[in-house]
Write a structure and sequence with these properties.
Layout (H helix, E strand, L loop, with lengths): L1 H19 L4 H28 L6 H14 L10 H30 L9 E5 L2 E5 L9 E4 L9 E5 L2 E4 L1 H4 L5 E3 L4 E2 L4 E2 L4 E5 L7 H12 L5 H32 L2 H15 L2 H20 L2 E3 L3 H7 L3 E5 H5 L5 E7 L4 H11 L6 H9 L9 E7 L3 E6 L2 E6 L1 H7 L11 E7 L2 E9 L6 H10 L4 E5 L4 H11 L3 E3 L4 H11 L5 E5 L5 H6 L2 E5 L5 H6 L2 E3 L6 H35 L5 H19 L6
Length: 611
C-alpha cells in the first residue's frame, strides 16, 4: 500500500509539472516513468517472468503491454500523449491487487481461526515427571495433563477432574460444555476451569483438530462448476481478446492510415478485456463461502459441493444419533421363562464386546458382569444381532429377524421403543424395551429444510416399524422406512436419486456406504464415527441437524454472489469494449471496466464471509 501512496503522490506532482511547463515529449516521458516504475515494477517483472516460462497471456502481461503502449503512443504523428492515463492504469491495477490481497486475507483469516485449535505442546506424564513435549511425540494410551486456559491437544478420555470446555472453534457454539471423569474429550476445545488428566485415545495426526484442519486446507482444491468454467473460459477468452485487440489496432490503421487513433483503441480494448474480475472474484467467493460455513461449525470439503448443496431436493436421515440422541436406556423388561435379572444378565453378557449404543444400554442396565459365566462362540450378524454360547447354552440377542433365524416364537410388545429379543437354545426367553430420545433440534431442523425449499424428507432406520412410525409422526417426516440393513439403506437412497439431488445425513459406521452413495453425504462430527466423517462431504461439528438448512442457505448465497460477479464483470466489459471499438470510450472508462469492476467484484465476494 505504501508504494501505491508514494506513486499517487509522484503522479500528482508530475501532472502539476506538466500543466505548468513546456517540455519536450521525451522529457515528460521520463517524468511520468518515475511513478510508473514505482507502482508498476512488480507487474512488469511478473510479465517478464511469465514470458520466460511460456505464460505470456497473463493479466500482468496484458496490463504491461497496454500501459507501455499508452506511454509510447504520444510519439506517433498527430497523437496526444497518454502519460498520466498510463500511470493511472497501473496505479489502479495495483490498487485492485491490494484489495484482492485484503479480501483473500480476510477469507483466510475466517478459516485461520481453525489453525488455533491445534496447540504446539502437551504436558505428558512419564514416570514421576510431567514433561512438556510436542503433541506428535505423545503416543495413544499415555496420560496428559491439561491446565485451565490450555487447548486440548489430543482426543482422549478424562481420568480425573471436572471442567467446562470452550468448543466454539469446533462447533461455532458459544455455550461451554461441562466435562467430568469418564467423558470423551476432543482436541481443539479449550479447557476453561479445572485441571484435567486425560488418557489419550488417538495419535496427534488422527485427532479431531488435525482432521478438521486437513479437511479445510484441502477444501479449496475441489473446484465448483463455476470455478472450473471460469478457468476454462479464461484460457480461451484471453487469447481471443488479445487477437481482437491486435485486429482493432492494425486492420483499420491500414485502411484509414490513422494509426494513433486505432492503436489507442486497441490498447483500450486490451485494458478492458483483462479477465481479472472473473478469475479473482469467483474463486474468492467460494473460498469465502467455505470460510463462513466453517465459522458456523459446518465443514464443507470442497467448493464443488456448493453446487450440490444449493440444488438439494431430498434430504434422507438416519434415525439413531441423527434425529434422535442415540442415548439408549432400558425402559422395560418382559421375561417369559426366566426372571428380569437373568434376562438382563444374559443380554449384557452376549453384548459385552459390542460398541453399538443398544449394547451399551444393555450393559449399563446390568453392570455386574464379573461372575462365573463363560462366554464363547460369539457370532454377530449386522442388522440382526449376536449369538453366543453362555455356560454352554446358545443365547441369541437381537431383533425379530434373528429370532426367526434361530426358530424362536417371538411376539410384539405394546411398549414404544426398540425391542431386543432373547432366545435360549431356540426357546423365546423374553424381550427388553430400549428407548431413545428425539433431539430437541430435530423438529426445527425439518421445518427449516421445508422453509429453504427441500421437497422431501425421508427417515431410514434399522429399528422396528412402530418405533420408526412414532418418530416420523412426531417430526412430520414425509416418508420413513424401517427394519433396514445397511445395504437396504443404500438401495432406498438409489431409488430416490432419480428424483433430484439428494443428501443423506448419518453418524454411524454402518452409514459410511450410503453417505458415499448420496449426492451429498452429511455426517455428525461431534458424536459421529470416524468412518462416517471420512465418507461424508459435509461435517456438522455440533451434531445439530438444523445446520443442514444453514449449509444450504450458505451454498445458495455463495452461488448467487458468484453469478452476480460474473454478470457484473461480463456486462460492463462488453459494453466498454463496444464503446472502445467505436471510439467512444476513454482510458478512464477502460480502467474502470477492468480494475474498478475487479474491486467491486472482490468487495461483493467478501459478503460470503458472513456465512
Amino acid at each position: 500500500m505504501v508504494k501505491i501512496i508514494v506513486a499517487a503522490g509522484l503522479l500528482l506532482a508530475a501532472v502539476i509539472i506538466e500543466k505548468k511547463t513546456d517540455w519536450a515529449t521525451w522529457q515528460y516521458l521520463l517524468l511520468f516513468l518515475v511513478p510508473y516504475l514505482v507502482v508498476g515494477w512488480d507487474t512488469l517483472k511478473e510479465a517478464a517472468e511469465g514470458l520466460l516460462h511460456g505464460e505470456a497471456l497473463s493479466e500482468d502481461f496484458l496490463m504491461s503491454v497496454a500501459t507501455i503502449g499508452a506511454l509510447c503512443i504520444g510519439f506517433l504523428p498527430g497523437a496526444q500523449t497518454q502519460f498520466p492515463e498510463a500511470v493511472f492504469v497501473m496505479l489502479f491495477f495495483q490498487l485492485g491487487e491490494w484489495f484482492e490481497e485484503k479480501a483473500e486475507g480476510n477469507s483466510r483469516r475466517s478459516i485461520a481461526h481453525l489453525m488455533d485449535i491445534r496447540p504446539d505442546s502437551a504436558h505428558v506424564e512419564r514416570g514421576e515427571e510431567l514433561l512438556t513435549v510436542h503433541p506428535e511425540e505423545v503416543e495413544p494410551g499415555e496420560v496428559i495433563v491439561i491446565q485451565p486456559g490450555e487447548k486440548v491437544p489430543m482426543d482422549g478420555v478424562v481420568l480425573e477432574g471436572r471442567s467446562s470446555l470452550d468448543t466454539v472453534a469446533l462447533t461455532g457454539e458459544s455455550v461451554p460444555r461441562s466435562i467430568r471423569e469418564g467423558d470423551e474429550i476432543l482436541s481443539g476445545c479449550v479447557n476453561q476451569s479445572g485441571v484435567l488428566r486425560v488418557k489419550t485415545t488417538k495419535a496427534f495426526g488422527e485427532s479431531t483438530a488435525s482432521k478438521i484442519l486437513d479437511l479445510v486446507e484441502n477444501a479449496a482444491s475441489r473446484k465448483s462448476r463455476s470455478e472450473s468454467f471460469i478457468t476454462r473460459f479464461a484460457r480461451i477468452y484471453t487469447p481471443v481478446v488479445v487477437a481482437l485487440a491486435v485486429l482493432v489496432a492494425v486492420v483499420p490503421g491500414f485502411i484509414t492510415g490513422e494509426w494513433a487513433t486505432w492503436i489507442y483503441r486497441g490498447l483500450l480494448f486490451l485494458v478492458v478485456s483483462c479477465p481479472c474480475a472473473l478469475v479473482i472474484s469467483v474463486p474468492l467467493t467460494f473460498f469465502g463461502g467455505l470460510g463462513g460455513a466453517s465459522r458456523k461449525g459446518i465443514l464443507i470439503k470442497g467448493s464443488n459441493l456448493m453446487d450440490k448443496l444449493a440444488g438439494l431436493q431430498t434430504v434422507v436421515f438416519d434415525k439413531t444419533g441423527t434425529l434422535t440422541e442415540g442415548v439408549f436406556e432400558v425402559s422395560a423388561v418382559h421375561p417369559e421363562v426366566i426372571d428380569q435379572k437373568e434376562l438382563l444378565h444374559l443380554a449384557a453378557h452376549v453384548e459385552r464386546h459390542s460398541t453399538h449404543p443398544i449394547a451399551v444400554a444393555l450393559r449399563n442396565a446390568y453392570p455386574q458382569e464379573q461372575d462365573s459365566c463363560t462366554i464363547g462362540d460369539v457370532e454377530e450378524t449386522a442388522g440382526h444381532g449376536i449369538i453366543a454360547s453362555v455356560n454352554g447354552k446358545k443365547v441369541a440377542v437381537g431383533n425379530a429377524k434373528l429370532m426367526e433365524k434361530v426358530g424362536a416364537a417371538w411376539h410384539p410388545c405394546h411398549h414404544e421403543g426398540t425391542l431386543i429379543h432373547v432366545a435360549i437354545d431356540g426357546v423365546y426367553a423374553g424381550h427388553i424395551v430400549i428407548s431413545d430420545r428425539i433431539k430437541a433440534d430435530a423438529a426445527p431442523a425439518l421445518e427449516a429444510l421445508k422453509a429453504v425449499g427441500i421437497r422431501k424428507t425421508v427417515m431410514l432406520t434399522g429399528d422396528q416399524e412402530s418405533v420408526a412410525a412414532a418418530v416420523a409422526k412426531q417430526l412430520h417426516v414425509d416418508q420413513f422406512h424401517a427394519q433396514l440393513l445397511p445395504a437396504d439403506k443404500v438401495s432406498q437412497v438409489e431409488r430416490l436419486l432419480p428424483e433430484g439431488p439428494l443428501a443423506f445425513v448419518g453418524d454411524g459406521i454402518n452409514d459410511a456406504p450410503v453417505l458415499t452413495r448420496a449426492d451429498v453425504g452429511i455426517a455428525m462430527g461431534a458424536l459421529g464415527s470416524d468412518a462416517a466423517i471420512e465418507a461424508a462431504d459435509v461435517v456438522l461439528m455440533d451434531d445439530k441437524p438444523s445446520k443442514i438448512a444453514a449449509a444450504v442457505r450458505i451454498a445458495r448465497r455463495t452461488l448467487r454472489i458468484a453469478r452476480e460477479n460474473i454478470w457484473l464483470a461480463v456486462g460492463i466489459k462488453v459494453a466498454v469494449l463496444i464503446l472502445a471499438t467505436l471510439g467512444l470510450a476513454t482510458m478512464w472508462m477502460a480502467v474502470f471496466a477492468d480494475v474498478g469492476v475487479t474491486v467491486l467484484a472482490v468487495l461483493n465476494a467478501m459478503r460470503t464471509l458472513k456465512g
